[in-house]
Hints:
By secondary structure, the chain is mostly helical. The chain has helices at residues 10-24, 33-56, 67-86, 101-116, 125-141, 145-158, 165-181, 197-200, 205-215, 219-235, 250-260, 285-304, 308-326, 352-366, 376-389, 403-430, 434-450, 454-471, 475-488, 491-494, 496-499, 508-529, 541-554, 560-572, 576-592, 596-610, 615-631, 655-672, 675-693; strands spanning 334-337, 345-348. It has a two-stranded antiparallel sheet. A hairpin with a 7-residue loop joins strand 1 and strand 2. Helix 12 packs antiparallel against helix 13.
Amino acid sequence: MSYPTRIVTTNNLSRTLLSLPIRLLHPPSHPNHVLALYCSLLSLRQCIHLNTDLDKNNNAHGDVLGPEMLCRAWTTLAEIGLLILRAGFGGDAAPNWCRGIEGEIEDAIAKGLHLSLAPKQSSLRTYHTHLMLLHSHLVLWQHNLKFSRSLMKRVWGSLSASDLPQTQYTALLSQHASYLSSVPVTSVMNNANKSSTLASRPSPIAETLRSLGSRHRHPDIVRLAILIKLRTLVRAQKWHGTMNPADQSIQGSLPEAESALGLVFDVPDGSAPFSSDPTERGVNTLLERMQMHVLVISVLYYTFIGDSKAASPRLSRLHQLLDVLALTKGADAFLTIPLTPGPPLIIEMSHPRVLFELGYIISSVSKRDTVGRDPRRKKFLAAGLLEINNRTEELGFPKWSSLADARELEDRLAKIKADFLCEMAGVCIMRSEFEQAEGCLAEVIAHTRTYSIFPFFAARITLHHAHLAHATTQVERALHCYRAAAFLDDDEQTGSSSHNYGSGTSGFVRVAARAGEVGLRLGLRAIKDHTLPVSMRDTDNDLNTMACDVIEECKAYPGVLTAVGRLLEAITSKEIVKAKHKLKASLDIASRAQDNHLRAVVLALTSAHYYDTASDHAQVMLQTARQLAAGMGASETRGNVDSGRPRGENYCGNSPLGLWVGERFLELYRRRGALDSARGQMEENETLRAAVRILPSRVRNSRVAIPLAV
């Protein structure tokens, strides 16, 4: 019995070799990703070599690849070459199998462009645009930003109205990505007169994309353009503006973005706090992803300005979307926008894992209250850290992603974990849980050094060490750490454009550190002057000048730092009426932000102004301050008292503030002749005094200097 013999022609072989890469490629998380790149490159080289040999021999049987297939081969070779470069196999240290790959990519792009521009090959025009974009990506990888942007503009200028919408959108989005990568972001709020080009002259690309989407009647593109504009403003730290229609700020752009995405929160009482198209809600994945990005920005913005009432409904909506996202297994960062006419547009957004972990930390940051036995702010942080440490599922990537994309995601997740640890340390310090705070700081230093991201967090870590030393009465260490944190977050001192110290803080850490130093020095001066007559008290002009500067700097940051600035202004004011006015303003901001940690301090200081003139009013404020101080570190269950421990160690809460309030209560009881209450208060004060005395011993490494080296 005989079987028919199948003849494999060279044309079939070339086509088979050309189709291999799409079948061989694996996502970067797969162990065979690099092997797939090697095999894909080998098959493309063989395909082109075989076709070149046939062309030289003037093959008469039609086995040579046609212009379209050959252009596709050159384009695929350029794409695979860029994946190899982004995997870290370029340059002089490249392995033998891809040595000189940069030259191969340039040659492939040049030959592909030559074919696409042939006068009789108008159908290859789409390859021309794609190859030009690949060329710009190669040039950008070679750090030639100016040439890359020039190529992007050339691509956009070569397009016409007859080109497919997908081609036009791709060119615009690539140009915007190149624009962002070539603009350094500096401390805009700290150096208003030296703001970056991105901040002072926002890119018009988003507006062009929006008008183009409106012209083609693609509502998803219009929403995407609005979101791109908002994220660009976040990158530029443009938080505040004039709220006019042409406003280029987050404050002015947020209402438009929320409205475009169907997020409505300003509704009458009794109505739903949000709404969207019922046909799209829960079905349109693209819309939900866009809503997540806008909600993340809006929650952060309203938390930043201290408006907890506006942040709360947005956080609730974000939680609903994250619950839906948690049920989506294996999702990646790429989404498809259907377009008519023509092929769909594939865009890359934040990875679902990034959004999911950001949801925990944003929930914690927006819940500013740290008072109570189990505050929600700490619960969100603990749940987020548990989710990070127990993560087992593989991160989703499409097969055309590169190792650089995987490394970038890993780096981003490492930074998010560092954010979690920093926030947990801050919460523990506010709750007087100093042992746990010290452990978090040690862990975040080890974590950031492991992933080589310590310079990004050096200023924040140092500020937390300053707060820890301040809270445990280690004055010298606190002053050193405050000054170091301010130095590390100062662009002019450290040159953060090259070292990335304090990256992304916009000078917030610097101002917070200087405010902490001023507050500590004012307290030390008050203790010193308390035992001296007025004529011998130290004026300390340098401290007064620094306090005035810090008060002005705090005004640039709404929310908590503005409240701190008002507080410092009240302390340094010599006019009682002005001091009361500033304290009331600070209390209003703290109450609106639900920041009970700051509210307790403001209430205690305000009571001092009414202590001699309106004792009943002062007692009410002192009682509230005492309750808040006791709640900053309350145990999860009642009755956790060990009778065998030394006196003071069983006390939970802010013992220095509690002692100060207790001494005021003791004086009030003595004035009124309430001897029984006075005796009880004296016993409580002794317990508080013992707790204050042992504060330095609660930190193990109180004498170890914080590492600040790069």
